[in-house]
Specification:
The protein is built from five helices and nine strands, in the order H-E-E-H-E-E-E-H-E-E-E-E-H-H. Strand 2, helix 2 and strand 3 form a beta-alpha-beta unit.
Length: 223
């Protein structure tokens, strides 16, 4: 996530560099905390101290997100629409199209956004996507810098039931059977390429000099 923030800063400095889309996973379970999320439940700190989960403060807003058994995306969008609902609407359409290709219909949530929520997936606002049973499948959050947007999102595929219960005190959403990350990434990439025509997207490995991320390093044990 520090790399996502670095890419946003680079976008601000080089506005002609174009948008960037990243997909990534996590080594072990991590709980990312929203930019403005306040006091943490004591049992989260206890679990982190015991090594059951690691904590990180992300640059984007929203509530806590468990990264385990899912897929994280980051979209860096130079000069995005200034109306946040419009930006969310565009990305929602792209994600809905991608999931439709795989036979998983999704739609936007209808609940009011809850600032500082402990569990990002406890509610589904119009910025989030839910399945036919009303279960939240994708939670998204934004961070803006000088008109440039970083949007983070977590796609739930196989959320761990026991760890979810320990963290949030409720059952985890159902897994998505038969859905591979490779298939999902390909479908979402194709959907975004079609919606962002005539941009020419290229796969690129990011090569950073040692220490280049230091100014944007995030705390792993936030207060």
């Amino acid at each position: 996530m520090a790399l996502d923030r670095w890419l946003l800063e680079r976008s601000v400095q080089q506005p002609d560099s174009g948008p960037v889309l990243r997909f990534y996973g996590w080594r072990g379970p991590w709980l990312s905390l929203g930019r403005h999320q306040g006091r943490l439940p004591e049992h989260w700190r206890t679990m982190a101290a015991a090594g059951s989960v690691s904590l990180v403060r992300r640059p984007s807003g929203g509530g806590a997100v468990l990264h385990a058994g899912g897929l994280t995306y980051a979209l860096i969008w130079p000069q995005a629409p200034r109306h946040r609902r419009q930006a969310y609407g565009y990305t929602a359409a792209w994600l809905i199209d991608g999931f439709r290709r795989l036979g998983y219909p999704l739609q936007c949530g209808e609940q009011a956004a809850e600032a500082g929520a402990r569990d990002c997936f406890a509610t589904a606002s119009p910025a989030d996507l839910v399945d036919a049973l009303g279960q939240k499948r994708i939670g998204s959050a934004q961070y803006w810098r000088h008109g440039h947007l970083l949007q983070h999102g977590e796609i739930l595929i196989e959320p761990p039931p026991q760890l979810w219960m320990e963290l949030f005190g409720g059952p985890a959403p159902d897994p998505l059977p038969g859905l591979s990350r490779k298939q999902l990434i390909q479908a979402l990439q194709t959907s975004l390429e079609e919606r962002w025509d005539p941009l020419r997207w290229i796969d690129k490995t990011l090569m950073l000099e040692e220490g280049e991320l230091n100014p944007y390093r995030l705390e792993t044990r936030p207060t």
